[in-house]
Amino acid sequence: MLKLSFERILFILLIFIPISIVMELTHSNPVFIFFTAALAIIPLAGFMGKATEELSKQVGAGLGGLLNATFGNATELIIAIFALQAGLFEVVKASITGGIIGNMLLIVGCSMLFGGLKREKQTFNPQVQGANSTMLALAAVGLIMPALVSHIFDFNTVETLSLGVSFILVITYIFSLLFSLRTHKHLYSCEEDPEECKPKWSKNKAIMVLLLTTAVIAMESEFLVGAVEPVSASLGLTELFIGVIVVAIIGNAAEHSTAILMAIKNKMDLSLGIAIGSSTQIALLIAPVLVFVSYIWGNPMTLVFNQFEVVAIIAAVVIANMICSDGESNWFEGVQLIALYAMMGVVFFLI
Amino acid sequence: MLKLSFERILFILLIFIPISIVMELTHSNPVFIFFTAALAIIPLAGFMGKATEELSKQVGAGLGGLLNATFGNATELIIAIFALQAGLFEVVKASITGGIIGNMLLIVGCSMLFGGLKREKQTFNPQVQGANSTMLALAAVGLIMPALVSHIFDFNTVETLSLGVSFILVITYIFSLLFSLRTHKHLYSCEEDPEECKPKWSKNKAIMVLLLTTAVIAMESEFLVGAVEPVSASLGLTELFIGVIVVAIIGNAAEHSTAILMAIKNKMDLSLGIAIGSSTQIALLIAPVLVFVSYIWGNPMTLVFNQFEVVAIIAAVVIANMICSDGESNWFEGVQLIALYAMMGVVFFLI
Amino acid sequence: MLKLSFERILFILLIFIPISIVMELTHSNPVFIFFTAALAIIPLAGFMGKATEELSKQVGAGLGGLLNATFGNATELIIAIFALQAGLFEVVKASITGGIIGNMLLIVGCSMLFGGLKREKQTFNPQVQGANSTMLALAAVGLIMPALVSHIFDFNTVETLSLGVSFILVITYIFSLLFSLRTHKHLYSCEEDPEECKPKWSKNKAIMVLLLTTAVIAMESEFLVGAVEPVSASLGLTELFIGVIVVAIIGNAAEHSTAILMAIKNKMDLSLGIAIGSSTQIALLIAPVLVFVSYIWGNPMTLVFNQFEVVAIIAAVVIANMICSDGESNWFEGVQLIALYAMMGVVFFLI
């Protein structure tokens, strides 16, 4: 019932695809373009996620896991690549920060809050979520390193450092796939509910939806990114705020809803797997890929996050680790994570 | 026997009430006024705590918990409000820092040390103390945020941020009361020893003592605060040192003794509940209330702590979390916390 | 078989003792002197460690533990004292940093990686390793304090602070010996394998080897330290890099190999005890002793680490704590620690 209405909302939101196209073609107010494109991306990302999931069920565990791992944050990557092309480096980096803290604080927080509302406590596998959040802590150290040296080093050294860190992060990510898909895959298997593992779409349908959504997301991302600067000017919001709060939420809205729905159904491992896994992937795969792409394009983006982003990432990682390390959650832990996100929001809004 | 002599010490210290009044009226050396007022506050805070406890036993669990939660750090609040009125913002903020690190390091440290001296180890509920120390970590992030942005923002923005953070902290505190007094109250109940839960004072006596001690503490706080500046000048101590080490200890001396006594009796949950709970309350309730009061008075105090306070708070929170997360303690963990407090003391003394 | 070939390698490396002496006497290229002295120190440190271990088995648990605790990092101490005498303060501090992060990240990482390769997971006593890594976190706070105040304080105050912190660290170290050798020695006993506890060398042999290796290490350290400046100039490496990466590894190479061998044999408590214990000892004993020695010599070295060292130490301590707190490890946790070390390596190389 809940699931059904959730999918229906996604279908209804598809109406924003034609609306955003009309807006773009008629050179409407960029604020309208920005928000209609954003609303259009939400269901597209949702169906892309669904298609990835369906496809991955049909190609064997190994390749399936790889598919999930690679397409998991495809929407964010597409938006970020268009922003990169437009030279909006601050927006790109802010959307990385926003993706990490949004997942670790807002989504994990909402999951623990809504999941814990009518329960004494919820439990999850601390080994799996602990591994994920430790990996994120490692990535956080890597991501903040260039910021720490940017005052003393020249640009070339910071660039080299960004490339070096990115390289190490990607290697670690590859090892993490080896860990979760091969040597310790039993920790991640969906034993609980075999129903969930059965494919519901045909392989061809899944591939078609995947290709189609990717194409439309790319188009909408171009609309969205093109409107960032005028929107930031006319609404008086900084590009940092748009990146951290707005862009980071859009790309993941559907996935986020799934994480919260899973928590309400008391499937905390699935829920945290989505949210923390998404953070980890942004830090260890998306961020490095963006550094590489910008380098290849000859206009290298370094990983120099600003001071607030650095503090936000460290705080999110450390506190989420404290909360996840015992394998138990309750609604108040959710409230705390949301409170931390709200504080970050105030800071990024005021800057 | 031990308890008896402890109460007797409190009674004896009451002698400093008339002494401090005479000192003040005869305009004696401010150093004498400062220390006699300080010594007078110790038993007053002790009896106020006792009265709160007795009253809270007789008004039902919900209201009782609320009373305890609100009056728990009343002495510190009264002292801080007088310091606020006198414009001693650095002393106020230093006493917030001192209250947090004093409880988390010195008091928890002494409890674990003395409690663990003749025992292999002591155990406590990691879920409860974990929740408390996570909440403190959250508050720590909020409290240090304004300091991080103070270099770039103008005063008004920092003030807005301080108000925003204070607001979020108070909301979180209210939710924590809902958690500990309603949805998860069984975690905090005094099941172990029903004897402890029986009232020993009549309701009227408790109310009388509460009103009387509040009034006298207010008077002594005025003496104390009035003497801070001359004392700091004549003893060559900074206001920071006086705030962090001296003021923070006075307001809580009686409560601190209780925490350590409970640890010696192997009631670690009660002991840690007092010490960590007190830290949490200072960070999530007292600090925000002081920001609101100063704002209403038209001379707003921002939450811009200095660099050493920021490091001290972070270090205290992280290390206390490491030590409390396993639900076990031994004397050496106590030594480590005290050693950390001693290092902080050296730094604050040297500044 | 593995053990045998390991000892054989040490014997073969002894050939570098005469080679380095010839190099030094013929005033060869400092790069050759540096590397032959370094290679000569590796087996010497190994045999010194063996001799300490054998001797400690024969003098009773208390004195034996003390011997192990004091001579455990003797090689590093000797090298550092020669560097101190030569005024190479940056190299000394860098070797402290390098010793801490090398043990916590590279050695613990390799142990968890190689030990976990063919195992689902390995387990260890979280109480013991937790105590060790908490102690290290405490020491880390102490070690970074002087760096935090160095911008505002004059040199004398920073010196006083360094002495104060060193004093507190040594006191804590002494209490830690009381804990591990007396009140909680059962946690650290070698119950598992009584074979390991039997002496294999005679007492006289052990004492002879101890004296001899100490003397030769001192000589080789003088060669090594004398060559640091020309080597750093001719290879284009900073003294920081040489200190953090090279010097820190040489002094501990043999001990490190033992830690990894123990992990491969699934004796994780022994393995982590060596690696984390070594870090702890560097932070709480070696660093303070070097501060005291420099002070007595009239040319005081302060504990002002540079920004990268501070971040490296904090990151190493926090992440190693996250990984060690659950009492379980797997190969991927090892990979993560090594990845973190590699990132640090890149930073220190680029500076």
Automatic annotation (TrEMBL), chains A, B, C:
Source species, domain of life: Archaea
Gene3D superfamilies: NCX, central ion-binding region
One GO-annotated biological process of the protein: intracellular calcium ion homeostasis
GO cellular component terms listed in the entry, alphabetical order: endomembrane system; membrane
Residue ranges occupied by any Sodium/calcium exchanger membrane region domain in the UniProt entry: 31-181, 206-348
UniProt entry keywords in alphabetical sequence: Calcium, Calcium transport, Ion transport, Membrane, Transmembrane, Transmembrane helix, Transport
Record-annotated membrane-spanning stretches: 9-25, 31-49, 61-84, 96-117, 129-149, 161-181, 206-225, 231-251, 272-297, 303-324, 331-350
Subcellular location(s) per record: Endomembrane system
Residues spanning the signal sequence: none
Family matches, as InterPro entries: CaH_exchang (IPR004713), CAX-like (IPR004798), NaCa_Exmemb (IPR004837), NCX_ion-bd_dom_sf (IPR044880)
NCBIfam families xref list: caca2, cax
Protein's name according to its UniProt entry: Calcium/proton exchanger
Source organism (scientific name): Methanooceanicella nereidis
